Amino acid sequence: MSSPDEIGASPASKEKLRKLGLARQDDLVLHLPLRYEDETRVTPIAGVPAGVPVQIEAGVVDVSVQFRPRRQLAVLRPRRQLAVHVRDASGELVLRFLNFYGSQIKQLEAARDDGRRLRIFGEIRHGFLGAEMVHPRYRPAGDEDVLPSALTPIYPTAAGVSQAALRKLIARAVSGADLGELLDESWCRKHALDGFGGAVRLLHAPPPDVPEAALQLRTHPAWRRIKFDELLAQQLSLRRAYMARRQKGAPLMRPGGHLVQQLLAALPFALTAAQRRVAAEIAADLLQPYPMQRLLQGDVGSGKTVVAALAACQAIESGYQAAFMAPTEILAEQHYLKLRAWLEPLGVSVARLSGSLKKSAKQAAQRHAAGSAQFVVGTHALIQDGVGFARLGLAIVDEQHRFGVAQRLELRRKGTKDARPPHQLMMSATPIPRTLAMSYYADLDVSVLDELPPGRTPIKTKLVSDARRDEVIARIRGAVATGRQAYWVCPLIEESEKRQLQTALDTHATLSEELGDLRIGLVHGRLKGHEKAAAMAAFAAGETDVLVATTVIEVGVDVPNASLMVVEHAERFGLSQLHQLRGRIGRGEHGSVCVLLYQQPLSETARDRLKIIFENTDGFEIARQDLRLRGPGEFVGSRQSGVPLLRYADLEADADLVELAREMAEHLLCNDPGAAEKHLRRWLGNREQLLKA
Ligand code: ADP
Ligand code: MG
């Protein structure tokens, strides 16, 4: 068994190591190099190529502290520099240090006087004054000093932990730890994966003949094995969490009956095939004796709300309550109005609970939730203290990625009086790319709405430089003249909410002037709940023509008559944000246009993002590209606390390994639970506890 004491560091360094995630021997073993330096050879000074890190061995000729005139473009350059002239049989070189200690000068002077040679590692550049190395690493070379036989690993580290110390600890851990193979070796060979022990030893100390590119690009079978193991640990822990959940009891429900049929009959539209399929998947889940944990993914506008309402009907018919939690007040309000309009005529009592309600109204709503309400719709106010559900059978979380794990767990904890956790339906319009769904979300069942309701006309996206703002104003007039409405989204100012608000006010004032004869509304995050609701209601009722808004309208808002959206400073928004915003239009039968105003000059990533949003309307494709641009951190942000981010595997590049890891996880859990346990312990140690959340 691993224990923190086995890593053999002093208490002070242990604390620093812990910050690097290094508490156990196994952690050190799996702390792999970022890159390598080749100190296995000595290159003669005359033969060193420029710009490539190399090792040389040379004697010290001269040590001097120089004062350099401050150049205009180098104001930050210290005036004092240490210059060390060194020489080998082939040539001469200057080592230059901008930061140095007195003791360093003494040491170098001693080497000069004794004729001791230095081993120097660095990159040569040919400057104005001849060949030089700036801040090379060096140490005195002993006489019988043999060259290392392996490449020198450079590890990720942090202040206070030197490479040398880390190397020593890791080398000791590698020779002391149990590197025993846990997987079938012939299976590994078949999939170009090295054995575990061999892979670890090779990566910490690669012999110089290992192809450099395969090491650097991490395509070497040793790297593949490590990445595979990492993905396997992730799969195992998520699958185990999934299986553990199945052991729990759940509120027992009946198949959807009369109420479900009544709602279907009352809707002004027929369900799409995708909605029918997904609704059936959920209905079947609700009949299981264990709690559902399903993620419903569907692009913006695919009609998730009605699917959730059908599930709620089934719960309500079975004598339970359903809760529907949305991330913003505007959205909660809109859901409340829509769900009430659908369900109250059928005799369902729908309650609203949001943070902005007056105290007395809130208390009344809380009492309602604890008592007679059958369906409670609200914001995270739903999970606050004081809200006790009498018999919560189904918890629906809309736009689930906007909530943290803790908040979702909180809603699940509400449950029934006999402490059975409710079934949980999570919904998201931020599609999760396949590899991500297979890895980070492997503990969930996933349903996908891959079809938009009929009759939608595709949205046209236009990229327009903000120098052409006048044309955009004219376009708004045109849209309003034909009876349509428009959103004007204010620029995102991430660093300051205050400035963001000011911008919204300014934009509203400017547009009111420019479009004097139109009715301009305004909604932003600082408005009181009822003010936001009023602004949204006026826009939904067609009483305002243009709605100036901050990103508070980003998710869920549904006003089908709005067919034009202008996003100012679109270059400041993220891809999924732009996609979500754009999803506010194109909801009716009218052709819709999204104008993305941008300001020159554009950074390269901004250009990339705008190009992607311009070329794609499919949320899944946009998400895939987003994953490529930003990595998984952004997608799983709110899951982070529970699921460690991958350090080595790359979900895009290593998609084949994700598949393999999933297969192997199933295999181990069924056939070799002991190996599964050992593998998890090796990779996660005590961290697995977190994953059970
Ligand atoms: P999202 O998946 O983005 O949450 P919504 O549930 O808000 O989408 O639905 C978008 C709009 O489409 C709503 O106005 C909704 O009433 C409507 N809608 C949903 N399903 C259908 C359907 N099958 N046919 C026509 N309109 C539908
Ligand atoms: Mg929605």
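^ magnesium ion complex. The first helix runs from residue 11 to 19. Residues 637-643, 689-693 have pLDDT under 50 and may be disordered.
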